[in-house]
Automatic annotation (TrEMBL):
It comes from Streptomyces gossypii. Residues 51-66 have a biased composition (Basic and acidic residues). Coiled coil: none annotated. The lineage of its organism: Bacteria, Bacillati, Actinomycetota, Actinomycetes, Kitasatosporales. Residues 85-174, 233-288 form the PPIase FKBP-type domain. Belongs to the FKBP-type PPIase family. The keyword Ribonucleoprotein does not apply. This is Peptidyl-prolyl cis-trans isomerase. PROSITE patterns: FKBP_PPIASE. Keywords: Isomerase, Rotamase, Signal. Pfam families: FKBP_C (PF00254).
Amino acid sequence: MTLSTTARRFAAVLTVPLLIASAAACGSDDSDDDGGKKKAKSVTVPAVSAEDGKTPKIEKGEGDPPKKLQVKVLKEGKGKKVEKGEVLNAAYLGQLWDGTVFDSTWKEGRSPASFQLGTGSVIKGWDEALVGKRLGSRVEMVIPPEKGYGAEGKPPQIPQNSTLVFVVDLKKTMPSQIDGKPVKGEPNADLPKVGTKIEDKAPEIEIDKGAKAPKKLTSETIIEGDGKEVDAKSTVLANFAAKLWDGKDFANTWEQGGPQEFPVSQIPGWKDGLKGAKAGSRVVISVPEKDFPKEQRAQFKSGIVFSVDVLSVN
């Protein structure tokens, strides 16, 4: 899956991976032998070479691609098993069955990506294959079209009905929800009311009809965590909802693949609005039109409100 069009709507310079995927564990094709019984039929997955932790080199597939998902643990890690619903941080290389590479976090300027597993946020192949694997493992997956991008593909990089081959290094798991406590006291009257209940969905941002955005950047922590603090150079793993001050919903990562990593310097208002916020917090930020690049101001003429759940800080 693409890491969000959401981020690109805010900042075209944000570097995000083309896709984040998952796969179902299945190591053989079934066929009927002469006695009418099914027996396992060996399937050869493309060979992989590389030093541990280095960029893998995957050979192109030979013959017809397998019709079922294939999963091979190239190196067994010693960490804990990844559980459904956790956010996995991983390095990966993805290519087509013919050997054409379409994405890699080992490319210059890229870093391991984070995505939520087992919740439908990524393609079925990754969801099925990586839940239950141990951190520190290197896993190869051959994903048939029905567990990847199917008949539609993901043009231009991934054609229709493509079989995908991935090598994934499972780095670490990260929180999928904040764990802070609601801040006591009266909320800032200049900001919309935002819920403090922690759920697997975005909190409601309640903007009164006719309300106007503050003329200056305004932010407030409404749930306070006790983790690492955000500074101007931080990258945060976050879920967020965004709403224009005219009442129109703009974005919601809970509905767009789950938590994502964002350099705070690359989303208007976040560098200053999240400054000092701790991991585990929910922060409300109102960003006026003037704080957006000139080419984006028409889109944000009324100003915008973010509700940001800061899951971790790097």
